[in-house]
Queue: 2 jobs
Job 1
Amino acid sequence: MRFSNLFGKTARQMPAETESVSHQLLLKSGMIAQEAAGIYSYLPLGWKVLQRIEAVVRDEMNKAGGQEVLLPVLQPFSLWEKTGRNVSFGESLFCLTDRKKHKLVLGPTHEEVVINLVRRYVQSYRDLPVLLYQMQTKFRDELRPRGGLLRVREFIMKDLYSFDTSEEGLAQNYERMTQAYKNLYASLGLPVLMVEADSGAIGGKDSHEFIVVTDNGEDEVIHCPQCSYAANVEKAHSFKEEADKTPPLLLQEIPTPEVKTIEEVAKSVGVSARQTLKAVFYIADGEFIFVVTRGDINVNETKLKNVLQCSTFKMATEAEVVQAGLVPGSASPIGIKKLKIVGDSSIASGTNFVAGANKQGYHFQNVNYPRDFQVDLLKDIALAQAGDNCPFCKGKLLSCHGIEVGHIFKLGTSLSEKLGAFFQGEDGSPYPIVMGCYGIGIGRLLASVVEKHHDEKGIVWPSSIAPYQVHLCPLHMNDPEISSIANKIYKELQENNVTVLFDDREESPGVKFNDADLLGIPLRLTLSPRTLQKQEIEIKWRARKQASTLPLQDYVKKLKALLKENTNDAAL
């Protein structure tokens, strides 16, 4: 490709209102263009990278036994009603109605459609297992699209679905896909953490995310350096140290004027936060929820939402708390009869707590569960945090941020049963198909590579997915001899199947070098009057500081050897 013919332009200034490094560099390099919030066009260079990422992903899916299909973007809304996921996806689901008044969905994912397809062709245990995958455009009406390609409303995703006769078969495919994911991330030069994750609206029993650790990541990971436990903060657990366990004392009401927060209560009474009970309030599917935790523990809202199995969920306002008959700052579970109460398991790990008296300026002392109050649900709804103890080895947990670049789920049989996807077993009885799903956002993967592979000058593409192998950068193209030899080199590289971006512009060396560094193509070839005088061409790897030269005589053979040598060196 000649630079003079390349569609799109590089920018000299960093684009305004961009947060992530990948967003900035992909726009500045002319690889993507923003059309609206969370909606992007891929320009030729960016599209080439995306296609090369797809090729890496496709290769691993094929090796793992996947068969590629293409499922429709438009899906019948009735399928989503059958699974109930039209409710769990909520307002993120794009819905529309056709001219015949049929309600349709722009697919945010494809479980419903693929199950409906498989149930037509799978009748017997002999038809299983099956692994189907696709690369398809998805749509989600994100509330806050941000970070460029990291969180968008339209995106390309690879999703693979496994169908098995048993949980054992699912476990084998889950392990097979885990290894395939690790292989493809290694090919892209992306170090990842595999962490336990919340399944969210997709559903299922178990799931894991693959996280690229970076300060710009929106996901928080809690991990233990001693035993390698790692989980998304939405899923993470920690060991809860017990509060004091002295013999239960008589319940007492004590005055606590002008005291509202846990810190103020603990200081006023002369106890630690661990010896207090905290009240937090939510509205779930329109119902008021009273949550009780130990004072030193915060609520994990994802865990709470999962426990409640609700679709709409928000924190209650102070007015809603008052309307429920409670006193903000001194609310108490004691004596509550008509409200749903959810308790964190920590409230059962101590005695003689201090809690609200539901009376302005007063608290109760020596509150004990379950003697003094009952809860409707007692579950682990605690937010694990850095500094807590590991639930397995009791080591100190750490926290880091990262970008999710893959998510795998053990769906089991819940969706199969709802959509009537059964197979006939060896005994002649019908059984629901056991299912798994495995997703990777291709655009997010591209952005994540940029987040990990860049410097102050621009992108540094791993050779496995770079748009071109070589950036031919002749200086002083107005010199007839330079121009002639540069065009000859360009032709020879193409004839020898070396992909090359030829900067044939009559620009200054500074402009050409800046653009070469910004675009991040692995190997730059520079032809100048100085190198030509020595019958040499300068070569410089984008990821290395030092340049070297090759003799012009027989340079193609040596260049191809260098490229082959560095093909699998993602970081160079």
Job 2
Amino acid sequence: MAELRALLVEDSEDDMMLVVRELKRGGFDVEFESVCSEEALKAALRQQAWDIVIADHNMPGFDSMGALRIVNDHAVDLPVIIVSGSIGEDVAVAAMKSGAHDYIMKDNLARLVPAVERELREAENRLLHRRAEATIRHMAFHDALTGLVNRYEFDERLKHVLHAAEADDQSQALLYLDLDQFKLINETCGHAAGDELLKQLAALLRAQIRDSDTLARLGGDEFGLLLCNCNIHYAEEIAHKLLKAINGFRFSWGGKSVAVGGSIGLVPVTAGMDDPADLLRAADMACYAAKERGRNRVYVFRADDADLVHRHGEMEWAMRLRQALDEDRFVLYRQVIAPVRAGCEMRREELLLRMLDENGTLVSPGAFIPAAERFSLMPLLDRWVVKNAVRHASRSSHGDIHFINLSGASLSDDSFYQYIGETIRAEGVSPEALCFEITETAAISNLSRAVGFIRKIREIGCHFALDDFGSGMSSFSYLKAIPIDYLKIDGGFVRDIAKNAMDHAIVEAINRVGQAAGLQTIAEFVESQEALDVLHRVGVDYAQGYHIHRPELVS
């Protein structure tokens, strides 16, 4: 028999027993209680859970409409069936609109059991539906892995905190926590280990904070913490407490015990702040500063911190660069390298990288290259340049030589040399039409790798140039070790060569040594006829600069 907990709202014991008997005849094992007043009904609802409420319509000082209101206030999914000896159709309709699930006349109790069975099924369906809705709502605002608040909900709560700081002048604080070496755990132990680590750390961090605080997983191994009614000094104490807990934690996986660390950026939330995105950016920058200062520490953001402001600018450029790469918003410009000395007639040009911003405006490399270097994006830019420069070379006149800049970062990429070879073969261009160049500083900073890379490039038939020579004040002896074809004299010495005797002497010395080593020399930053005349007298092979040719878009 099916168990049924029935709460009967009835003042007649005979009618109550008729209902119970009918339910038992229908196959229910009935546990019931009878009440006949508002107070008794409320007490019974508080004391235990019921499957169904069966109410008489008319009782002294109490009716089914009053019972409906009480039941609906207590449990919206608890079904109510009205059983009455006399109820008008208008009253029955009003009762159904108020939440009754059915009404049955006492002289037709044969309908009771089917109605109860139906309403129990419907109640179960409503309960399951509400649970599903609650799960969906929870998933919308919480991280599926850790159960913490997610980024969207954290942003919403941050807005409320900013409003409170403005309205009530309350002390609030925002912490941005990034785990140190989390990627190493993912790579060595696998992503399942990384997920388990995040779950355990989420529980550990949650145990260190107050119920009024908000801990969120913002993405990956990054967590955010909102501290309400908390001044900056207490916030620092909490931040150090969190770091201490993380440092004392040992993660066990596959028989190994792994230690983890964290870096925390702390931002005081004060009146006048109104943009959650700016606040999170400030906290992220402070966290990055903590990492740069040795990791496993707390860094407090200050609005006048010049280093962080500079870092913020570079981080924004890094994001813009990634987007520009995704949207292919880069172009190549060409600048002619003209012969100066007799006998140097073959056409040469340098291919220069430029970026188009979100509005299509041209951006010079000086604006984005520092960020690309700091955030390890140069190898991606180098590949874009190689692909498009080689493609341009394949469409150019026979005999032209195209100079292509490479960063020092790409020299450390073992697959980059292979990429160059594959691109040359795919475009069907003669390797002799290409001359790759790196700066003197990049070459000297990792001399053995640079020499190995240059040799491999020249073995496939390409030329190589050493750019900005003289800027690093390196010894001429390096020219014996680096197997290059061209030596580009740093433009800082060339620009004022007609006016500055020291610049004249330096350029003359570099040119003489370069040519003695069998190299062809190129003077950069030639911006006047006077400078060009001096270079002609010095005997430089080629000249490059605005006086020779202003860069133009590669068609």
